[in-house]
Amino acid sequence: MSKYHQPLIPTLNAPKSTNVPWYDPDPGARLTPDILSFFKSYCNLSGDALTTHLQEITPSPPFPPIQRSKLWSLHPTPFTGQWAFLTPKLPRCPSYATILSRLKSGDALLDLGCCTGTDLRRLVADGAPSEKMWGADVEPRFWEVGWEMFRDRDRERGFKARFLEGDVLDESSELRRAARGELKGWFGVVYLGSVLHLWEWRRQVECLRVVAGMTKVGALVVGRQIGRKGGLEILRGVGKGEEEGERTGQYLHDEETMKRLWKEVGEKTGTKWKVKAEMVELDDILPEKRDRGGIGEEAMGMVFEAKRVK
Length: 310
Prior knowledge:
By secondary structure, this protein is of the alpha/beta class. The chain has helices at residues 33-43, 47-55, 68-74, 78-81, 96-104, 118-125, 140-150, 174-180, 201-213, 255-269, 282-285, and strands at residues 2-4, 109-112, 133-137, 162-165, 187-193, 215-227, 232-235, 249-252, 273-280, 300-308.
């Protein structure tokens, strides 16, 4: 394990200036044939009408207008700057077919860090029912953008997924209250897409401790993120009033450190997990090199699947 002090990937503290390599003014390059087909089938939009719609997304009151520039002000990373929120990522996970089958059989799913809910809509487009789908994120305006982007605010049209606002690390958040109550032991599938690598080891353990409490025995927790061979912890300086053990940062995993992380989570929660983890080429996580602004050259992709066996 190595420790450095400079982040390899852009975080929520990234500058909000659009004068960065990962900001595109329009979504043209992002609208691949697969994405065009997805939007055509899900919300009957294509061609210039789709491009115009995506640039002019405006949620209804009481939320203020949120065009893509507003989404950028909330989340100034390559994910937003290069329109990556248009692309479903969950279908790239090796267990996607298994997840679809589980949902069709009645399992509930949580997309933790769902942003606009694109992956949830892709699951629906692929035949999964949305009644037991939940999305969670720190910013409810992401969800508002999703409703407008996919034109499915009217639940009678078929999209019945529910949204939970809150930081998974904040005990007072709506998400954490639900985790202690109605959602305790509820989920058969949890998806963590590009989430864990935002935190250092300590906060990853806390996140997964909460996730474990919301799963039932037999549940799958799947994720995809940036990784690094040998493991890499990136710690920032100690802030005012902080102790050395409270330093924040990021941890990038390889196969062994990911398994060790889940072992610690199991010990802290009284659960047990069978973990599959694999380092993959960065192309598997970020297929387009243009998505990689600010990512270090030694970074790789990491995919994992943790099955709860106890």
